[in-house]
Amino acid sequence: MSRTTTERIPEAVRRLRKVELHQHVDGSIPSRTLWRLLKRHGLHPVPTFREMRRRLELQPDEEGTLLAYLDKFYYPLWITQFYENVKEAAEAIVREAVSHNVRVLELRYSPVIHTYAGLTVRQAIRAVLSGMNTVIREVPDLRCGLVLIAMRQHGPHIAKILARQALGEAEHLHDRSGVVGFDIAGPERGNPPHLFREAFEIARAGGLGVTAHAGEDAGPEYVWQAIDEAGAQRIGHGCSAVTDKSLLRRLARDRILVECCPTSNYQTGAVRHGTPHPMLTFLEAGVPVALCTDNTNVSRTDQDREAARMLPQLGRDGIRILREVHRVAGEHTFIGHTGRTTPARAGERVRRPAARPRPSAS
After folding, report:
1. Given 107, 162, 255, 262, which is the most exposed site by the fewest CB atoms within 10 A?
2. Which residues of 263-276 are buried (b: 16+ CB within 10 A; e: fewer)?
3. Which of 1.10.287.110, 3.40.50.740, 3.20.20.140, 3.30.70.100 is the CATH number of 8-352?
4. Enzyme catalytic residues
C-alpha cells in the first residue's frame, strides 16, 4: 500500500509526471520489503513489523541532526550484501516510485558498502541494474539510471577506483539501464570536494554526469569547490548556497541544477522547521531545481508527499511551478547522455580556484 494513503494528496499532484534525480537505494527500500528480507535470514531484531518500522523510519522525536538520520541506514546493510536481495530491494523501490507517477528515475548507490559478504563491486552494481530492468520491461515509458556514490569517509583513493568501475558499467554499454553519473556523499564536514577532484576527472572523462552532495551540512565554500574543482553539473541539497549571492548568480548563470530534498532537509536540521525551504530562493534567483525525495523510507516520504508539502510555500501557482520544476529536472537528467565527452563532462567548465569569485562571508 502506498504510504500516501494516510495523507491527503491533491489529485493535481498525483497526475503530475515526475522526475526523480536524487534518491538513495539504501534509504528507500520499503519497510515491508526490508522486514521480509530480515525475516528470511532470521535477522529481525524485534518480533513485530510495527517495532521494526520505528528502527527503519525516522521518528519525529529523532529529527534534528544528520547523524541521527544516518543511524537508520545500518539495518538495510544487513541484508543488502547478497545479489538477489539487492535486486529485490531495487525492484521494490522502482515499483514504489512508478506508483507515484515517476517516469524518470535516477537512483544513487554506493556499491562498495555492499561487498562485505563477497560480492564484487561489479556484481553489487549489476544487482541494482537488474532490479531496475525488471520494472522497465513492464513500464515502457519509464527511464532509469544509476548514479554511483563514493563515500567521503572511504577517502579519495577508493573514490578513484570506484570512478573507474563506474565507467565499465556506463549506460551506453547496456541495452537498458546503466550507470549514468558519479557522486560523493557521507560526512561532509572535513571532507571537502576538492580532495576528490581526480575521481571526478575520471568520471567526466568517461562521459558520466557529475553531481555532488554539498552544502547540506557545510557552508557554501563546499558548493563552490564542487563546481570549480569537481566540475559538478548538479548539486545535491546545496542548502547553504542561499547565503551566498555570488554563488546563486553562478548557479543560475551556468544552469547548475540543485537537487532539493525538502522533507529530508527539515529532518536533518539542514533547514530549520518553520522556515521557508531554500528551494524558493533558488527559484527566485533563476537557479534550476529538482524536487527530490532523498530517502523515501527513512523520511517516510515519496514524490507525491514532497509536492504536497511544498504547495503551501509555492502559493497559488504551486501546481504550475511544480510542473515546470519537473520539466526542467527532466532536461538535467544524466540518463541518455553517457559516453559523450561534452565540455561540461570533459572538465572545460571547471575553473581553477584562483579564477573563481570569493565566497561571501555571510
Report:
1. 255
2. bbbbbbbbbeeeee
3. 3.20.20.140
4. 216
